[in-house]
Design brief:
By secondary structure, this protein is an alpha+beta fold. The chain contains seven helices and 20 strands.
């Protein structure tokens, strides 16, 4: 941290990871975890303004993210990665989950920042997500000591092609609850205030999700995200997610206005054309429909699709054949699934992951005004 007139500066890197963007910081450059750090990060991103005009945020949740990286304190990981979701319109931050898209940028960042020893042609970066305790492994293509950028991997929601980064989340089962099926059931019932019963599936892989048939909330599951955000069913979906959070022990009052972002709510439906994808989804993060799908949400969809009796399994057009093709508003995300030979009642995964791309966009310093009291 250094001063520049009436501002101070913090070194940072802006990176795209999958279909999201985040400002990356070395942990040593920031205050310790707590209110002061949260306040600083909200200032960095311009939280509390829909345009985030006075910060680095891009006026969407998918572009208002922060990644904090440090050498790992664990023997089984190379780097510790803390994810912070900075809200756009409200001055608040969320620490209760991970972002799979930004996770894909952690490996290249670690290589380029010298936090791991770069090996060609691929470097395996073991990533410990501090938020959830989960372990992920990123297979990063490397050339001349740097993460490669050029390649022929295309992902829905990102123009063009880039170098493929393989992400394996097999070590992220039970990321928040400790169990793939937090309730022990493939399906559960949620009783609404009006007496209706909605069938849901709880699953925890990558991040905890609640799955519900789109038709059960009066939607087709093929609507555009903006239409879902404006739909009259928003109150119903908030009630379902709120009551599911109570069931999981995440909070006590489903009516509270400031509920954490997890679990995510995922609407599932059969695809219009089984040749295109296996299941259609619309994912809501913090009650806002994602423009495509959260990467950890895709991981959870694929895990749930592997569980007979789940809402997702029932909606899939065909049985898993090593890849689950997940449809969303911008295309299809394919998740690779390889079950362990030890799988019995519940699946155990050797591979649960996907291909992502990531790129360093900018490196420099962010400028922040010095508090007036500090100048007086």
């Amino acid at each position: 941290m250094s001063s520049f007139g009436e501002q101070f500066t913090l070194p940072c890197v802006l990176m795209r990871g999958g279909t999201s963007k985040a400002v990356f910081f070395h942990e040593s450059a920031l205050p310790p975890s707590g209110a002061a750090r949260d306040e600083l990060l909200m200032r960095v991103m311009g939280a509390g303004d829909p345009l985030q005009i006075d910060g680095l945020g891009g006026s969407r949740l998918s572009t208002s993210k922060v990644a904090i990286i440090a050498p790992s304190r664990r023997d089984d990981a190379d780097v510790d990665y803390t994810f912070v979701q900075v809200d756009v319109e409200q001055r608040q931050v969320f620490h209760d989950g991970n972002c799979g898209n930004i996770s894909a940028a952690v490996g290249p960042y670690a290589v380029d920042e010298g936090l791991v020893h770069a090996k060609e042609p691929f470097t395996a970066v073991r990533i410990h997500n501090v938020n959830t305790g989960a372990l992920m492994v990123a297979r990063v293509p490397v050339s001349r000591g740097r993460a490669r950028v050029l390649g022929d991997c295309a992902i829905a929601g990102v123009p063009g092609t880039a170098a493929e980064i393989l992400m394996n989340y097999a070590g992220a089962i039970g990321s928040r609850t400790g169990h793939l099926l937090p309730t022990g059931n493939a399906r559960d019932l949620v009783v609404l205030e009006d007496g209706r019963r909605i069938e849901v599936s709880f699953c925890d892989a990558g991040n905890p999700c609640v799955f519900v048939r789109a038709t059960d909330v009066g939607l087709t599951g093929h609507e555009a995200p903006l239409a879902i955000n404006a739909a009259p069913q928003q109150d119903l979906m908030r009630e379902i997610r709120g009551k599911c959070g109570v069931r999981l022990g995440f909070w006590s009052d489903w009516r509270a206005a400031d509920l954490p972002a997890m679990p995510m709510l995922v609407l599932v439906s059969a695809p219009a054309n089984a040749q295109d994808c296996d299941v259609m989804t619309r994912l809501l993060y913090a009650n806002v429909c994602h423009p495509s799908i959260a990467a950890t949400g895709a991981i959870c969809v694929a895990a749930a699709a592997s569980i007979p009796g789940s809402v997702v399994h029932a909606a899939c057009s065909q049985a898993s054949r090593g890849v689950v093709r997940i449809g969303h508003s911008t295309g299809v995300t394919s998740v690779r699934v390889q079950l362990s030979a030890a799988s019995q009642v519940l699946p155990q995964f050797e591979v649960l992951g996907f291909a992502r791309t990531a790129r360093r966009l900018m490196a420099g310093a962010v400028f922040l005004p010095i508090d007036k009291e500090a100048l007086s």
